[in-house]
Each structure stands twice: as C-alpha cells, then as structure tokens.
C-alpha cells in the first residue's frame, strides 16, 4: 500500500506540475502569441544545458543511494551532505560557465538572464532525498502550494506580448521557491554529523556514470527545440514545446511509477532479494502497459482538434505534432520500467547509459535531414524514432535477466483494446461537432470501450484492481 500511496502522491504532483502550465498556457498562448511562446521555449532549451551540468546525474543517483542507507540515520545524513556538497559545487561551476557563455551570446540577453534563475534553483533541489526515503508527501504538498501561487501570479501579472521576460521570471522563481520549501524539514529528518567525516568526492565518479545518460537524454529532450529555433523559427520551437507539454501530462501518470519504484527496488536489491525485484518488475511492466496503450491511442484520437481548440488560433500545427508524438507514450513507459526501475537499481548503469546514448545519437543523426525536410513534424518523427531505439536496446540488454514471454504476456490485450477504442473516438472527433462537451464525451466513450475490452479479454490489470479494492475494504 505504501508504494501505491507514494505513486498517487507522485502522480498528483507530476500532473499538477504540468497541469498548472497547461491551464496558464491556454491564457499565455493568446496573450504572448506564438512568437513570445517560442522565445520562451527556445531560450529555456539553452539554459537547460547548464542546468544539466549542475545536476550532474544527482536525481537518480541521490535517490538510489539514500534508499540504500535509509535504515541507518547517521549514514543517511552523511550521504545526503556529501552529495549536496558536490551538487552545490557543480551548480557554481555551471553559473560561471553561463556567465562566460553570455559574453559571446548576444541573442535575447534579457530572456537568457531571466532563465538563469532556473540555474540557481538547481542548488536547492533536494527532492531526490525525499524520494529516496519514500516520503513523497512532503515534496508534493509544498511544491503544489508553490505551483498554485505561480499560476495566480501569471494571471495577475502577464497582460500582453511585451511580458515575455516577466513570464519567464515568474516560472523560474516558482521553481526556486518550490525547492526552498523542502529545506525546513531537513533539520528534523537528518541527525547532526561531524563535518570531518564527510568525503563528498567518493560520489563523483558514480555520479558521472549517471551524468552521461542524463546528457544523452537531454539531447533529445532539448536539442529538437534548439534546432527548430535555429533552423526553422522560434515559433516552431514553441509549437514543439506545446505539443510536448500535453504529451508529458499524459506521460506523468505512467513515469511516476519510476520515481516511486526506484527506491523501493533499490532497497530490495540492497537486501539481496532478487526474486522480489523481478516480481515487482513484471507487475510494474503490466501496469504501465495497461495505462499507456489507452493514453497513446486516446491522445492520438483527439489531438487534431484538442490542440488548436485549447491553445487558440494559430496553433493548428500542434495537433498534428501531438498525433505523431503520442507514440512515445508507450515507448517511454516501457523504457522507464526497464531502465529506471530495473537496470539502475541492479547496478546495470552501463546498459542504461548505452541505451539513452543510442537514443541521443539517433536523434542527432535524424534531426538535420528530417527538420530540414519536414520542419516541426520532422523533429517529432526524430523524437519518436529515438525513443523506440532506447526501448529496443533496453529490451536486448535484459534478455538474460527477464522472461520476454512473461513480460509481454498480456500486452496484446491492451493493444487490441486500444485499437478498438481509437477507431470510434477518432471518427467522432473528425465528424461530430467540435466543442468541449463533445470532446468530453469522446473521452468518456474511449474510457468505457477500453474498460469493457479489458474486462472481456480478462487482462491482469483487472485482477490487480480487484485485489487492491478487496485489500482496501478489509482495512
């Protein structure tokens, strides 16, 4: 029940973290217009490279290391402060690198300086610690409060296309405040230790191992926006981000399992319980398959009318981009289970690193010709093919550790149910009245069709849901 509770907390926050920008983006897209939205997307993609350097792979590494030692408070405290020292130093180096970069980069300096607040916020991000001890309640409640404040600030302060800088500042400060709210809890969660016993640099090489896959991941997360802004237009970069935002909202429901399961699996590995690790893996893979298939087909079915209706006039290309990008929902769901929930906790960082490096390499190779030929849609296909290559390699990497037959035993049921759902929903979306109530009806029809199909096919997710309900009723 603890894993489920943490999953719901994390899902709640991940959804809120994307829903707040989505709620505000319906307003911002009209106020700042595609040009302003594109400017924010393009400059943010640049600052993310410096944030990547400052983060130094600490998200996954810190989460896992805290999970290993959380039953020993003094060792946990030592580990936390050692990792935090390294992170602070890396952030300072990243800030210096940014200052040097700004000596030569003259395009939109005001926007870039505003984006740099995000870089300062990195030093204060200790969410990895609370994820490691599986206390998601603290991060969720405090960050949720800050997100809601930022939403209010956007509606109150952003009034016209000249407010791009102010919009960037509001978003960045909300990130900084969200990170700062976690620090008051540290005093009661960690015992005091002697600073002389700290050895922060013992973590540096292990962090570097996870830094490489972070670099690779960031390449095909941010490079597409950067290249679109340079090769096509900043407006195209904004279209890409708005498509990605809606897809990531759906993905949050799936990838939240990775953040929750990583410390749980890592703790089982530290106790040598590999049978339990594999059992959790098969169960998690079936769950994300059951959830990601309908999300992929459902989003694709309504995307062509959802995007322009939500974002407003001038955002039509976002709908077609979303339809292409919806494929990554399933691919990232699977790679999240295989990579984050399995390869990392069992110390197969090399395979994880190779998988995302392959994805980055594929993305770089394909971006130039595809963006040159098809612009925004070329960038989307490059993203999709990159994610497929990551998942295919990870499946190959676990060939001797997992049973493919058991892993995919029920996947065909979810695939069939998703296809049967897609056909009528897509027809409704294209032929019936284009309105919000009709789109809501399309979603309801999709959920009902998928649910009925899953029941008819007797998919394992039905048994899992039944067992959970029975356990809840007993309590």
From TrEMBL:
**What keyword terms does UniProt attach to this protein?**
Cell membrane, Membrane, Transmembrane, Transmembrane helix
TM region positions: 7-29, 41-62, 83-105, 164-183, 287-307, 319-340, 352-372, 378-402, 414-432, 438-457
Q: How does it sit in the membrane?
A: Multi-pass membrane protein
**Where is it located?**
Cell membrane
Name used for this protein in its record? Oligosaccharide repeat-containing polymerase
Annotated organism of origin? Lactobacillus intestinalis DSM 6629
